[in-house]
Design goal:
By secondary structure, the chain is an alpha+beta fold. The protein has one domain (about 10-175): Muramoyl-pentapeptide Carboxypeptidase, domain 2. The chain has six helices and four strands. It has helices at about 10-25, 30-55, 70-80, 115-130, 155-165, 170-175; strands at about 85-90, 95-100, 135-140, 150-155. It has a four-stranded antiparallel sheet. The longest helix has 28 residues, at about 30-55. The radius of gyration is 16 Å and the shape is globular.
């Protein structure tokens, strides 16, 4: 995404995930999330460079909030990640939706698989918000959902959502009580 950075394509990301799941299944999710989280700083820096070049503004803090959704979608799409749409949900959460997200491998699993992206988005969105946020994927094209949907909220809120989902509730139900 940056002229000074290294780009990782869809094939590389899928091969990394598959290798970790095959050779280190007990640690794959954590490794992918941590790697994604670590890359968030570089992606945020690239977003600032992109804003200067494409929008003529000095950085994310100067971006009009009304333009944020389109700017983020254009940025991620132009970097090869896919388009996104951000919308507020109840319980203080945001939904980040994509019908063409790069990490998804449609129809290959029964569980959400965009672990690298969840980590990347957590760090990136936390930098954008100026506070810690957590990100959890709740729908995934890898399991044949129509989109990848990531939830972003405070770590406490997403922990409650996760706990309630493990108890059999949907994330929508959990957010209604979060």
């Amino acid at each position: 995404m940056s002229a000074n950075g290294l780009s990782m394509g869809r094939g590389t990301l899928r091969a990394l995930r598959q290798s970790l799941l095959s050779h280190a299944p007990d640690h794959a999710v954590t490794i992918l999330q941590e790697a994604g989280y670590t890359s968030g700083a570089d992606v945020f820096e690239a977003f600032g460079e992109w804003l200067r070049a494409q929008q003529g503004i000095s950085g994310p803090d100067e971006l009009d909030a009304a333009l944020l959704n389109d700017a983020l979608s254009d940025f991620f799409r132009s970097g090869g990640w896919g388009s996104i749409a951000i919308s507020p949900l109840s319980g203080g959460a945001l939904a980040i939706d994509s019908i063409d997200w790069i990490e998804a491998d449609p129809g290959t699993t029964q569980v959400p698989m965009c672990f690298f992206s969840a980590g990347l988005l957590a760090d990136f969105l936390g930098r954008l918000a100026g506070e810690a946020v957590a990100v959890m994927e709740v729908e995934c094209r890898s399991r044949s959902d129509g989109r990848c949907r990531f939830l972003s909220a405070s770590p406490d809120t997403l922990q409650r959502v996760y706990d309630e989902m493990m108890a059999g509730r949907t994330y929508e139900q959990a957010l209604g009580s979060a």
